[in-house]
Amino acid sequence: MSTWLTVLFVTILLNLFPLKLEKRKKFILPISFIILFVFLAIRYDYGVDYLTYQRIFYSPELYSRGFGSEPLFWWFFFLFKHYYQFVIAQTFLICGTYFYFVTKYVSPKYYFFFFFVFMCYPGMMFTTIAAMRSSIAVVVFLWGTELFFLQRNKPLLYVVSIFAASLCHLSAIHLLLIPLAYNFLDKMSPKIWAFIIFAGLLVSMTLITQMVGNALDYFSEDTLGDYSKYIGGKFNESSSSYAILRLFVIVPGFYIYRVFIYGHNKNTIAYKISTIAIVYFTINSFGLDFQSRFAVLMFLFVILSISYMFDTKYNMFKKLAISAFVFYVVWYDYIMFVRLKTMIGMQGNFLFYQTIFDLPQLP
After folding, report:
1. Among the residues of 257-294, which ranges form H helices?
2. What digits encode the pLDDT tens for the residues 310-333?
3. Backbone phi, then psi, for 346, in 5-degree steps?
4. DSSP type of residue 49
């Protein structure tokens, strides 16, 4: 944990250093990402599934199973001779992609904010390094979004890119909600969206979602195979405490909807980025972000939307929205580490950092 805290504070403080914004963009941001890359690239057994994928990598039985339902990931996975090479390549793709998006869409004034959220929010860094398939799906999805949604409006190619991301992790298929939402959110008033959100919170605070999850547990294992565990009750964050916590992220969501979406030009970058953020907020309000599978895919756009919020007209609503979001991130991070302290089997996955150079030979 001390290593994680060191990287967190170093990357934040570097980007708060009083330099001209152009120098911060040219020198400080690349240095910060290099630090982040090294920290994640040489990790060993840091992340829940690190050893699981290591065993799969060296398991001859896996080859006989074929590529399954996610051929694009498995093709990339087996390109490498050693497992540590895959981890380094995975980290390079993630850090390189995020570096591109932060450089292009975040003002140098707010680089520190990206590192704060990325390092602290469990659905970002911690899920990214644990969910190997989802992390590669993120890379495919983000580049598809950049090429066919943000820079050019190519809906068919964008849908194809989402299907490509689902070939890395099947959960990415739900991203098809984004092009659908893009076409009608500007016509839906913030009050209607707020009603949907609060209805979702109400549902997630009751036994309804848990009952659905338990029902899915009953029949989904045979029909969905490995994916049944993502939709069953045991991974459902539908308790009242989580629902109350999600209230704090609704405030910035409502602000983003009102300022960047409703009645605004659909062809602007702010509208498109905010659309993805709103889709995530909506899914999250219903307590359906199982194991942060949607956060790891879409939360970057939440960060981008919040960074745009900083430059809007200052008022009490804006102050409240930013404060609520920061509280949400910090409190969620605190909950994660408190839970880890009581989960003996998972403590080593995140509380204790070690590198591949601590081993007698590279994995």
Report:
1. 269-285
2. 888 878 888 888 888 888 888 877
3. -110, -5
4. T
pLDDT digit string, tens, across residues 122-179: 888 888 888 889 999 999 999 999 999 999 999 999 999 999 999 998 889 989 999 9
Residues 13, 16, 19, 25: is their CA dihedral positive or negative? Answer: positive
Rounded CA separation 132/38 (Å): 17
- Chain-centroid distance, C-alpha 168: 15
Comparing C-alpha atoms, which of 239, 256, 244, 263 is closest to residue 308?
256
Tokens 């390092």, residue located = 119
Query: Which amino acid makes up residue 211?
Result: M
Return d(Cα 294, Cα 178) in angstroms, integer: 12
Contact 85, 92 (CB under 8 A): no
Say which residues have a Cβ less than 8 Å from residue 356's Cβ, sequence separation at least 6. Answer: 42, 43, 44, 84, 362, 363
Average of per-residue pLDDT values in the chain: 82
Residues 238-256: what's their mean pLDDT? 74
Give every CB contact of residue 178 below 8 A, 6+ residues apart in sequence: 149, 162, 275, 276, 279
Task: Please report, as a single letter, which amino acid is at residue 88.
Answer: I
pLDDT at residue number 9: 93
Residue 232: pLDDT band (50, 70, 90) is very low
Per DSSP (E only), the strands in the chain are none
Cα within 13 Å of Cα(117), Cβ side:
22
Tokens read off for 344: 């003996």
- pTM score, whole prediction: 0.87
Residues 211, 278, 242, 113, CA torsion sign: positive
Residue 159, CA distances (Å) to 36, 50, 93, 166, 216 in order: 31, 31, 22, 11, 28
307 Cβ partners below 8 Å, 6+ apart? 105, 106, 107, 110, 113, 114
DSSP state of 69: T
Most confident stretch, 81-90, 206-215, 310-319, 322-331: 81-90
Do residues 197 and 180 touch, judged by C-beta distance below 8 A? Answer: no
Residue 64 · residue 46 · CB < 8 Å: no
In this structure, of 81-90, 136-145, 191-200, 237-246, the range with the lowest mean pLDDT score is 237-246
